[in-house]
Write a structure and sequence with these properties.
It is built from 14 helices and no strands.
C-alpha cells in the first residue's frame, strides 16, 4: 500500500471537499485572469517595434510567442496542480537536498521582483499591473515551496500566507529605498516642497530670508518634527535626509506591528512576526504618516507596560 503522505492533495488549502473545490476554482480563475492580462500587456509592448511580421520586430515577435507559450504552460501546470493528485516525492526530495541553499534561493526570489521592477529599466517596460502580478506571483509560488516547513507537503496555505507577507514586506521596503540617492534635484513633483517644509523647523540657518518675511511651511508640525530631525546635524546632505525619510517610511510601521503582536509569554511560534509584517504592508497602503504611527506606538507601549509607565505614556 502506498504511503498517503507521499501523495498529498494537489490543492493548497485544506478543509472539506466543497471548500477545496471552491478554492481551486477561485485560484484557477484568478490565474487565468492574470495570465490573459499579462499576455495582452506584453502584446502592447511588442506591437509597433518593427515590421518583421505586422508591426512586430523579429526580437519582440519571438519574445511574444515565447511568452505566450510560457503563459499557456503556467496555466496548464496550475490546472494540473489544482485538480490532480501529483506525486510530490521528487519535489520534496529536491527541496530536502537543497539544505542551506533553500534560504539563499529564498532571498533571491524575494529580491528578484524588487530589483527587476524598481532598479532596472525593465521596471519601465513591465509597468502593467498584470505583468507585475505575474512576476510577483511566480516568485511567491517559488518562495512558498522553498520555505514550507511541513516535510510532507510541497506547499500549504500557511506557507503561502508566509511567503506573501515576506515578499510583500520586502517590496514595501525596497520601494522606499528607491529614492535614496544623492541626486541634487527633486525626484518627484512634491519632494522639493517636502524637504523645504522639513528643513524649516531645525534648518533655517541654511537659508537667507528677507527681513520681516517669515518662511512658511505648508505642513503640520508633527510631520515637520519627524522629517526634520536630520537638519539638526550641521553638515547634513540630501542623501542623509533621503535615507532618514526612507527609514521613517518603514521602521515605525514595522515597530508598531512587532509591539502589537509581541507575545507576552515565551513561545516557539513565530506567527507574531507575520502579524508585524501584515501591519507594515497594510499601513503602507494609505497616507498614514509617521507621526500618527508613532502615536500608536506610544499607545501600544502604554497598554502593555506597567500601570505607572502606561500612565506616563
Amino acid at each position: 500500500m502506498k504511503d498517503p503522505k507521499a501523495f498529498p492533495s494537489g490543492g493548497i488549502f485544506k478543509g472539506n471537499a466543497r471548500a477545496r473545490v471552491s478554492s481551486r476554482i477561485a485560484g484557477l480563475a484568478s490565474a487565468s485572469v492574470i495570465l490573459c492580462g499579462a499576455v495582452l500587456e506584453f502584446y502592447n509592448i511588442a506591437w509597433g517595434t518593427g515590421s518583421w511580421n505586422g508591426e512586430f520586430s523579429l526580437k519582440w515577435g519571438v519574445a511574444f510567442i515565447a511568452f505566450l507559450i510560457l503563459c499557456l504552460a503556467i496555466l496548464a501546470a496550475a490546472g494540473v496542480a489544482c485538480w490532480k493528485q501529483i506525486p510530490s516525492a521528487k519535489a520534496l526530495g529536491l527541496r530536502n537536498r537543497l539544505g542551506g541553499l533553500r534560504w539563499l534561493a529564498s532571498a533571491f526570489v524575494i529580491v528578484l521582483p524588487i530589483y527587476l521592477l524598481q532598479y532596472t529599466p525593465w521596471g519601465v517596460v513591465l509597468r502593467g499591473p498584470y505583468l507585475r502580478l505575474l512576476l510577483w506571483g511566480l516568485c511567491v509560488a517559488a518562495l512558498t515551496y522553498l520555505i514550507e516547513q511541513d516535510v510532507h507537503s510541497v506547499w500549504t496555505g500557511t506557507g503561502l500566507l508566509t511567503a506573501v507577507l515576506w515578499s510583500g514586506s520586502a517590496l514595501v521596503v525596497g520601494a522606499g529605498l528607491t529614492e535614496v540617492t544623492d541626486y541634487p534635484f527633486s525626484l518627484g513633483w512634491s519632494e522639493g516642497n517636502r524637504l523645504w517644509d522639513y528643513s524649516l523647523l531645525f534648518g533655517r540657518r541654511l537659508y537667507s530670508f528677507d527681513p520681516g518675511v517669515p518662511p512658511v511651511a505648508y505642513l503640520d508640525t508633527g510631520r515637520q518634527l519627524v522629517g526634520g530631525l536630520p537638519f539638526l546635524l550641521p553638515g547634513v546632505t540630501i542623501l542623509a535626509a533621503r535615507i532618514w525619510l526612507a527609514l521613517v517610511a518603514t521602521l515605525p510601521y514595522l515597530l508598531l506591528g512587532l509591539l502589537a503582536f509581541w507575545p507576552r509569554r515565551v513561545t516557539r511560534s513565530h506567527t507574531w512576526i507575520l502579524g508585524a509584517l501584515l501591519v507594515l504592508v497594510f499601513l503602507n497602503q494609505g497616507p498614514i504618516h509617521a507621526p500618527l504611527v508613532i502615536s500608536a506606538i506610544l499607545v501600544v507601549l502604554g497598554t502593555r507596560a506597567s500601570i505607572l509607565w502606561g500612565a506616563l505614556l
